[in-house]
Write a structure and sequence with these properties.
Layout: H1 10-42, H2 50-70, H3 76-90, H4 93-102, H5 104-109, H6 115-144, H7 154-173
Length: about 180
């Protein structure tokens, strides 16, 4: 017996909206998880600059996929700007100084024979995964709240991004997926 949704049937519309949001959340979580794993693998690329370019490419792909899930317009140059702004957030302050030792320093260390490559392979996958995880989770929340790529404010999102980055490091350390 089919039930017709009438204009006064608020419960039916609310139920559909809840189901839509749950589906978006589930799809977006899968996007973040997959791309976090891909970003971790870019840390194994032994060539400086190429590894960073590969990581940014994965992050841009993730932002585009999240934009699709939430029906938000994606612009590659805006995506690059967001990634740069969040990189600045994470590399400032006490947390940033510690992360510079793992992320950027290990990228520079790749140019040192054997020791540098080993150090980089130990640290870069975790850094790349944590950063990508944080980026994805912050945008998942931003898009779910009705935000767009163009109205994203990195300064307002900084505290949440830092927390998600720490969460991402814990996932990586524990050997779990994001």
């Amino acid at each position: 017996m089919a039930r017709d949704n009438k204009p006064g049937d608020v419960m039916g519309a609310e139920t559909l909206e809840v189901l839509k949001r749950r589906k978006q959340h589930r799809l977006a979580s899968g996007v973040v998880q997959r791309n976090t794993l891909w970003a971790a693998t870019t840390g194994f690329v032994p060539i400086p600059v190429v590894d960073s370019a590969a990581t940014v490419a994965v992050q841009l792909k993730m932002l585009a996929e999240l934009s699709d899930v939430y029906g938000v317009e994606f612009n590659k140059s805006s995506g690059k700007s967001v990634i740069a702004a969040l990189t600045a957030c994470i590399t400032s302050g006490v947390l940033g100084r510690a992360l510079l030792g793992t992320g950027i320093f290990s990228n520079l260390a790749k140019v040192m024979p054997i020791v540098g490559s080993t150090l980089s392979i130990v640290t870069m996958p975790g850094f790349n995964a944590a950063f990508t995880y944080a980026l994805g989770r912050v945008f998942q929340q931003h898009y779910a709240a009705g935000g767009t790529l163009t109205n994203f404010d990195a300064k307002k999102a900084e505290a949440e991004f830092r927390q998600k980055f720490k969460d991402g490091l814990k996932f990586e350390r524990d050997g779990k997926t994001a």
